[in-house]
Amino acid sequence: MIRKRAKSQREPTIALINIVFLMLIFFLVTGTLARPLDKGLTLVRTSELEGAAPPDALVIHADGRMSWRGSDISEAGAVLSTLPETDRAVIRLVPDRDLPASRLVEIGRTLRAAGAGKVVVVTERGLE
Predict the structure, then answer these.
(1) Bridge-partner residues for 94, per DSSP?
(2) Which of 26, 102, 104, 117 could cross-link to 89 by cystine, CB 3.0-4.6 Å?
(3) Strand 118-121 relative to strand 71-73: parallel, antiparallel, unpaired?
(4) What pLDDT is stored for residue 126 in this prediction?
(5) Do 64 and 101 touch, CB atoms closer than 8 A?
(6) What is the per-residue pLDDT for 50?
(7) Per-residue tens of pLDDT for the chain, all 128 residues
(8) In what order do the strands lie in the sheet with 66-68?
(9) Which helix (H) or strand (E) holds 91?
């Protein structure tokens, strides 16, 4: 009686290595297809740019004072009474960095209760 030798189970590691290698080549090739920028091109720098609040925004200072279109106001809801119905859809708030968050939320709720459709907080975006 001749005994058959049991075949050892081979793992398909070669196939897996081939697939990974092909994916690596694919990403290397597709990453270089985008045209590079011209070498003489210099992009705009905005780090020195002086920021200003949008003209139709409620500015809230760190001490809680509010101003609308350059004049001080005492109550956030008073802003909505001066606006036509179409301009009440979006109200922009420009808070000072040192304004407490609870005060900002309170003003936002006051504006929503007074009839503002959407209250948007304008912030500075730092790309450093």
Answers:
(1) 59
(2) 117
(3) unpaired
(4) 42
(5) no
(6) 56
(7) 677 776 667 777 888 899 999 999 998 887 766 566 566 656 656 555 555 556 678 888 888 888 887 778 888 777 787 788 777 888 888 888 888 889 889 988 988 888 888 888 887 664 34
(8) 71-73, 66-68, 57-60, 90-95, 118-121
(9) strand 90-95
Q: What are the chain's domains?
A: 57-121 (3.30.420)
Angle at 91 between CA 89 and CA 97, to 5 degrees: 160
- 3-state SS of 26-76 is HHHHHHCCCCCCCCCCCCCCCCCCCCCCCCCEEEECCCCCEEECCEEECCC
Single out the residue of 52, 65, 62, 57 nearest to residue 94, CA to CA: 57
